[in-house]
Amino acid sequence: MISLFWMIFQVVAIAAIAPLFDGVARVLRARLQARKGPPDFFQTYRDIFKLFTRSRTLPACSHWVFRYGAYIMFGTGAALLAVMPIMYGPNTLAGSCSDIFIIVYLSAMFRFIFGAASIDSGNPFAGVGGSREQMLAVFVEPVMITSLLVVMLLAQTSNLASIQEMVRSGVIGYHIPAFAVASISFLWAMYVESGRNPYDLAEAEQELQEGVLGEYSGSDFGIAHAGFILKQFAMISMFLSIFEPWNFSNPILALVVFIIEAGIFYVAAVFIDNFGPRYKLLTSMRSNALAALGVSFVSLILYIVGA
User: Fold this and answer.
1) pLDDT tens for residues 228-251?
2) I want to staple 210 with a disulfide (CB 3.0 to 4.6 A). Which of 94, 180, 185, 205 is the partner?
3) In this predicted structure, which of 51-55, 175-179, 227-231, 245-249 has the lowest mean pLDDT?
């Protein structure tokens, strides 16, 4: 039962600290763009608190999908973080729930609710954002699933906690070419899932990446925004759990190191946001997604030939 306590503890701790890194990223982005921006790193906390003090409004045409969509997204983001083996190991009750298939299904559920709620809102801009989100999935999910398939075949299990333990002990790892190549394609998929340029435009978030949030207000908007941040951290933690696991037996120390490492990944993406190229969505997908899919297939071929 102690593993279940650590599972809940890690979700609460990450949910509490994640807005701080979002605030750091916002300040850094503003400075790089020569804007004034938020006054300090705690602006995201103030924004979410302010939203919770405001009343809730709903479009008259909306149904239960939109009305409960924000809460489902937050719950799904929290569940994604819970099944990441950060503070518990493979031979525990919590470890038995840490499975790659569960993560894939939860990620798909988050994206489905994201798109369905945007269409249910009745706002045409939100509908466009939701449709764009589903189109991204067509490009990203084959890369992610192929990369994870290689890892599962190498480990002969889909249990994420067991895979993490194998990487730590050196049973599988970067000394296997298929694993090393799969890490490259999965890193690309993780970056896209975090909603950064050139796959998102910060100046048009309401119409694109966060189009579904266009009709949300008050506490609903705050919950949806927090759920989106949790999902971003969950995607980063999945990469770290599989490809860059740290070997700490102390759960608190493991959590602290994980938060610092994930926060560095989260903030470092701001530099790519500002200094990276910008493309039209389909142009960027043609030039990047096909290349990433090719890399993931190379890793699969390397596994098949025994490299």
Assistant:
1) 888 888 888 888 888 888 767 788
2) 205
3) 245-249
Instruction: State how far the Cα of 252 lies from the Cα of 271, in Å rounded to an integer.
Output: 30
d(CA 81, CA 85): 9
Contact between 215 and 123 under an 8 Å Cβ cutoff? The reply is yes
- Packing angle of the helix pair 160-169, 218-243 (nearest 10 deg): 40
Report how far residue 289's alpha carbon sits from residue 144's, in angstroms, rounded to the nearest whole number. 11
Q: Are 262 and 240 a contacting pair, CB within 8 Å?
A: yes
Mean pLDDT of 81-93: 85
d(CA 244, CA 242): 6
Contact between residue 144 and residue 234 where contact means Cβ atoms under 8 Å apart: no
- Asked if 114 and 208 count as a contact pair (C-beta separation under 8 A), the reply is no
Residue 91 CB coordination number (10 Å): 11
The residue among 231, 228, 225, 233 whose CA lies nearest residue 48 is 225
Q: Which residue has the tokens 């299990």?
A: 157
Residue 146 to residue 152: CA distance in whole angstroms: 10
Q: pTM (2 decimals)?
A: 0.84
Cα separation, 178 vs 155, in Å, equals 12
Count of H helices and E strands in the chain? 12, 0
Spatial contact of 117 and 61, defined as CB atoms under 8 Å apart = no
Can you tell me the distance from the alpha carbon of 201 to that of 203, in angstroms, rounded to the nearest whole number?
Answer: 5
The CA distances from residue 96 to 133, 156, 171, in Å, are 31, 15, 20
